[in-house]
Amino acid sequence: xxxxxxxxxxxxxxxxxxxxxxxxxxxxxxxxxxxxxxxxxxxxxxxxxxxxxxxxxxxxxxxxxxxxxxxxxxxxxxxxxxxxxxxxxxxxxxxxxxxxxxxxxxxxxxxxxxxxxxxxxxxxxxxxxxxxxxxxxxxxxxxxxxxxxxxxxxxxxxxxxxxxxxxxxxxxxx
Length: 174
Prior knowledge:
Layout: H1 9-13, E1 20-23, H2 29-41, E2 46-52, H3 56-69, E3 74-86, E4 89-101, E5 112-113, H4 151-162
Helix pairs in contact: 2-3
């Protein structure tokens, strides 16, 4: 594999297959879950989940969640290491590739997991609507920092725009 500084133009322009998901440590898992649901609705038979470094636990958690939301998914996991040449020294990073498929996979492979029983699978519902919500109810206020804006806080915010030393929690600019 190539390192960060050695990417070629042809490699950055190329796209991964539609059924391959590269998990990172920042994006919400529900985003990946919605994308996988759309892939299965578009009649894809398998999904490949990849994670590197700090994203490996998130990729494993995502695969477990997908298996608990969609019936009959076979799993095949492979763990590898990737080497990167980063400014003169070689870095080794862990890499996991998890293939989830509706079709049977190689049962002799050590990373194979059979589908979960149907009793353990809860069907995926994209957006569950809360039935208890009533339109006549007064809106609830959020908890945490912030709150109502009054004259004092507006004056303080105006001062913060001029001063770079102010680290007040009333100011949204810090």
